[in-house]
Amino acid sequence: MSNKKIHILVTGASRGIGKAIIESLDQDNVTVIGQSTKGGDRLIASDFTQDGAATGLWDEALDRLDGRIDVLINNAGLFQPNPVAADDWLESWNRTMRINLTVSAELCRLAVLHFQQRDKPGRIVNIASRAAYRGDGPDYWHYAASKGGMVAMTKTIARAYAHQQILAFAICPGFTMTGMAEDYLASRGGDKLLADIPLGRVAQPEEIASMARYCALDAPASMTGAVLDANGASFVR
Questions:
Q1: Is 190 helix (H, G, I), strand (E, B) or coil?
Q2: Sheet containing 43-45: which strands, arranged edge to edge?
Q3: Which secondary-structure segment (H or E) carries 35?
Q4: DSSP label at residue 99
Q5: What's the pLDDT at 25?
Q6: H helix or E strand, kind and range, residue 227
């Protein structure tokens, strides 16, 4: 990438993987802005359950970043159980799809258009999940489907726009020690789930952040379209 400062937008940046990504990008040649529902230091407040949230976030991020975004990192996600017998099953499905996939797609679209209008290289990094390939538990159809869609979208963007130097990568973590995973591990019996991970532990947010940082700043252009696994060998493709 060029010698001038690289401008990066990261969603879901208030905690867990997103916060670790922001911290990993804290260096002289990068200016990074994050998103969270409530906002905060270096964070734009944007509620992804609301119509127009993606466009509003993008416009405010552009304003704060002097009209230029070089890298988009889609990390925001919702991981909540949705039992098949639940009366609000469809509502829960739609909410998860909106936050995990639709808003990410809207932001990817805005990023691609922005890169094309500037006629400059750009990068997109999507944080998906092992569930995209392995599936998930019976209460998490919606989560697995949303992450499968994110992987397919990433591959499509990579194939469609590589000739314009618009690059796209996906990262598929397994269990990562964030608030969402901690709750899930506790509800499902942590020891039993850990026994399914040959490494013997879940990933740390900093590990996923290091992969996101590499894709955002250093990965060679020929790697575009790559999907990187980080699941302790619990699912090997």
A1: helix
A2: 43-45, 30-36, 6-10, 71-74, 122-127, 166-173, 227-230
A3: strand 30-36
A4: I
A5: 96
A6: strand 227-230
Give the relative orientation of helices 16-24 and 205-217 as an angle to the nearest 10 degrees.
Answer: 50
Report the DSSP beta bridge partners of residue 8.
32, 71
Question: Residue 4 phi/psi, 5° resolution?
Answer: -75, 165
Distance CA(127)–CA(212), nearest Å, equals 8
- For residue 110, give the nearest of 46, 33, 54 by alpha carbon: 54
What is the rounded distance in angstroms from the CA atom of residue 160 to the CA atom of residue 164? 9
CA–CA separation, 174 and 42 (whole Å): 28
- Global confidence as pTM: 0.94
Residue bearing the bigger pLDDT, 53 or 184: 53
> Which amino acid is present at 37?
T
Q: Assign 195 a pLDDT band (cuts: 50, 70, 90).
A: confident
Q: Are β-strands 122-127 and 227-230 bridged in parallel, bridged antiparallel, or unpaired?
A: unpaired
pLDDT tens digit sequence for 116-168: 999 999 999 999 999 999 999 999 999 999 999 999 999 999 999 999 999 99
Is the predicted pLDDT of residue 179 greater than 70, yes or no? no
List, by residue number, the catalytic residues.
143
